[in-house]
């Protein structure tokens, strides 16, 4: 083959491999994202913090499937096909009778599970939390995310006392506070009950229909008034000022409940803003609704009462309150203001030569069994490369095992900050490492 031909062949091979890489890249789905190792610390911190909040507030763990029946969510959000059609991801392969969707939230399936498993016998009220992915193809307002997102949810099922409305708000606020997310804004509203909410909804729908020509394009063509109530466009904001407000339509019971919630918030020193147009579209909510926003106006958490949900899906009355914290939005926020991870420092284990490598499994197990986190790059042969890896991981202490040490049952402990080394017996390794870690 002459030189020109061989170069041409090389070029073709190169472009083929580029094309292949591009094809791999193209398999990613719009609205669905990967979490990659560079964000590992942030996610670990979020999951740890959520678990701690759940533990401190006494919530039991629950988990429901990512797939639920479409009929269930049509009951939850209202069966108006105009509203529900296209909002969720249908599950391909389900039979027409099954009609399955990827869940748009994990909060309400907790109630389905409560009814299915008679969880009221376990605890009343039942305080439960979940963590998982949910999916919305098209959100009806600006509060819910679109595509795939992760939620951390808290619920108290089986009690209508306003004290639990506060417990839910406090749990969400505690989560954000522990992650050091500052300057959040808690907005709260009442949405009424069966007796009083309907007439208000009719009024606001009529108002929205009448004002459509003065609203932004998205609010004017939206399927209902929900978007208009949370729109930031100036025209929509101005028109909202003269829209009817829910507070004028509340029945005495709802009025008293809302008053009690606000008094408890004040008692606890939690700052809030009243937002008379917050979360009014979705039928599932009643009485209290709230949302917590970041300084830049992103909705980080939302929730409220769903006292009628159990009856909507065929159960007896189980008054409940709950919320979801949008953890992927927390992760986005934490990326711009890195958090200090509270992880314990680890040691880096280096082995040179086959004999040392064979012994390394036993020593690594010894370290981990004794609660010392250990990382390694044993796939690399040279000392230089393994040391470089240790430096990159910024570990305070490295353990070195060469052929000689392996035969003599010794190990070298190296202080990575000073470079100082000492050789100890394998038996003394744990004790010495623990002592060194304490000094850090
Ligand atoms: Zn009412
Ligand atoms: Zn608008």
DSSP summary, beta strand count: 15
As a percent range, the share of helical residues equals: 40-55%
Query: What structural category arises from helix and sheet content?
Result: alpha/beta
| Large-scale geometry | elongated
If classified by CATH, what would the architecture of the largest domain be? 2-Layer Sandwich
The span between the termini is 64 Å
CATH fold description of the largest domain: BirA Bifunctional Protein, domain 2
Distinct small molecules: zinc ion
Number of structurally distinct domains = 2
Q: How are strands sequenced across the largest beta sheet? A: 1-4-5-10-9-8-6-7
Number of helices: 17
Question: Could you describe the largest sheet, including whether it forms a barrel?
Answer: 8 strands, mixed
Name the beta content range: 15-25%
Regarding CATH, which class of the largest domain?
Alpha Beta
CATH superfamily of the largest domain: Bira Bifunctional Protein, Domain 2
**Low-confidence residue ranges:** none
Mean pLDDT: 89
Catalytic activity: tRNA(His) + L-histidine + ATP = L-histidyl-tRNA(His) + AMP + diphosphate + H(+)
Region (Disordered): 1-20
Organism: Candidatus Jorgensenbacteria bacterium GW2011_GWA2_45_9
Keywords: Aminoacyl-tRNA synthetase, Ligase, Nucleotide-binding
């Amino acid at each position: 083959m002459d030189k020109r031909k061989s170069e041409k062949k090389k070029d073709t091979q190169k472009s083929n491999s580029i094309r292949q890489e591009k094809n791999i890249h193209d398999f990613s789905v719009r609205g669905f994202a990967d979490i990659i190792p560079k964000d590992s610390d942030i996610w670990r911190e979020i999951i740890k913090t959520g678990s701690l909040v759940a533990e401190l507030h006494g919530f039991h763990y629950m988990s429901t499937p990512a797939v639920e029946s479409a009929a269930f969510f049509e009951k939850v959000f209202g069966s108006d096909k105009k509203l529900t059609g296209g909002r969720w991801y249908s599950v391909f392969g389900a039979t027409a009778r099954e009609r399955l969707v990827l869940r748009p939230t994990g909060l309400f399936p907790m109630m389905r599970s409560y009814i299915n498993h008679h969880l009221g016998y376990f605890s009343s009220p039942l305080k439960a939390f979940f963590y998982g992915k949910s999916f919305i193809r098209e959100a009806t307002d600006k509060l819910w995310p679109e595509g795939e997102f992760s939620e951390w949810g808290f619920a108290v099922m089986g009690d209508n006392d306003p004290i639990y409305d506060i417990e839910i708000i406090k749990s969400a606020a505690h989560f954000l506070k522990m992650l050091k997310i500052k300057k959040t804004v808690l907005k709260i509203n009442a949405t009424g009950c069966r007796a009083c909410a309907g007439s208000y909804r009719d009024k606001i729908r009529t108002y929205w229909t009448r004002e459509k020509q003065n609203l932004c394009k998205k609010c004017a063509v939206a399927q209902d008034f929900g978007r208009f109530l949370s729109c930031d466009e100036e025209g929509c904001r101005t028109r909202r000022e003269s829209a009817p407000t829910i507070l004028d339509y509340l029945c005495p019971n709802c009025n008293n409940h809302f008053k009690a919630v606000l008094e408890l918030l004040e008692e606890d020193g939690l700052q809030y803003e009243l937002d008379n147009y917050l979360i009014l579209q979705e039928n599932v909510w009643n009485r209290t609704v709230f949302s917590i926003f970041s300084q830049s106006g992103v909705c980080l958490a939302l929730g409220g009462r769903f006292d009628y949900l159990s009856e909507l899906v065929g159960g007896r009355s189980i008054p409940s309150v709950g919320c979801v914290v949008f953890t992927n939005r927390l992760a986005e926020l934490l990326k711009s203001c890195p958090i200090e991870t509270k992880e314990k420092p680890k040691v880096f284990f280096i082995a040179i030569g086959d004999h040392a490598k064979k012994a390394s499994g036993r020593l690594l197990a010894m370290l981990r069994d004794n609660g010392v986190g250990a990382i390694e790059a044993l796939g690399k042969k040279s000392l230089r490369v393994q040391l470089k890896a240790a430096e990159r991981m910024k570990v305070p202490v490295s353990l070195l095992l060469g052929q000689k040490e392996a035969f003599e049952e010794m190990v070298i402990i190296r202080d990575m900050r000073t470079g100082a080394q000492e050789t100890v017996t394998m038996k003394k390794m744990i004790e010495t490492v623990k002592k060194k870690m304490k000094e850090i």
